[in-house]
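README, section 4: Worked example with a bound small molecule

Sections 1 through 3 covered apo chains. Here we extend the same pipeline to holo records, where the ligand is supplied as SMILES alongside the sequence. The molecule in this example is zinc ion. Nothing else about the input changes; the structure line simply encodes the ligand pose together with the chain.
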Amino acid sequence: MRLIYGRILIVIWSLEIETQLDGQHWDRRKRLIHGEMLCSGVLRRLSAHAIAGTLGSKTMGHLKVKLVNNKSKIVNPKAFTLIELLVVIAIIALLMAILVPVLRSAREKGQRIVCMSNLKQLTLAWITYAEEYDSKIVFGSAFAFGSWDIPPKGWLGMAFFYPESRIELMENPDKGALWPYIKDIDFFRCQKGLAGHAATYATVPSANGDTVPGTHLSRYDPPLFKGLSPWSIPSKRIGGTVLRLTRLTDIISPGSAQRAVFIDYGQTPDPSDFRVHYLYPIWRWSCPPQIRHDDGTTLSMADGHVEYWKWKGRETVEMPRKLVPMRAGLFKESLDGGDYEPKTEDGIYDLQRLQKATWGRIGYTLEGGP
Ligand SMILES: [Zn+2]
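The generated complex, written as structure tokens:
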């Protein structure tokens, strides 16, 4: 029925055009105007039929010739139909869905490689410093503005403590003890660091950093240590393991390939280091595991090599997603709800893996743990 209707319209339209051309009292302009009006009306009808596929190619060819001859509104045969456009959009959306995750993964791997390279440079500087200072390890606190007694110089320096700009950071002479061995501010910052964070790496506390319960002798016992700053108090030694390292020669068992030094902290370190407990099976509220490298973290070892750890425990990865700002817009974030004790086997594994790399061993027993 549609086909018949379309053909009737074509015939009527053709006769009209011919009549106009033969008329004596129609001037050229009137003929053209009338032709345009007629064609536009027919076009509207025919386009619906053409989309529905009810018109044959022969009819369509006839229509095109007539339209061109009358200099009327022209249907570009190369234009997209709505359906074709939708198909193209669907194909593009499909390609995007496939390619975006791949590109994102490639970008993360590139950033991770840069991050590990930074850690490598920092750790080589850390080793070189100790070799130049009679095996003594650089003070592990980043900024080291202690006031107990004359504090050693921190490895990072106050210049990195939230500078106003990159230029200010470069020009500030208050760089830390490792600066002479690197002298490039880009090595102190992971590319995935937040805006405004000039440095993103921290030492673990066993690398001559803050004192952690259970890892050093008491300040008051023996009385000889009374009045000394925390970093002057001798470390505890258990068998061949020195918990808190102050000299390279302290690293005996486990060896230097198993003792962590720097970790990608995730934000500019505050005056403390990345606090890892020794006595307790918990993540400290202020130092949750970092997950920004594809749900894993990067860290370096005392022999200079760098590792990437993909966390095994789902809770290890989920927990840091519930971070809350500790000081809005400035300092680190912290765990909502305080310290976190993992419950699953994989979660416990993740925590103990970092505790062992930090202290050489763990200071507690855990029933059911690995
Ligand atoms: Zn990083």
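What to look for in the output: The chain has eight helices and eight strands. The chain has two domains: 2-69, 114-359.

Section 5 describes how to batch many such records.
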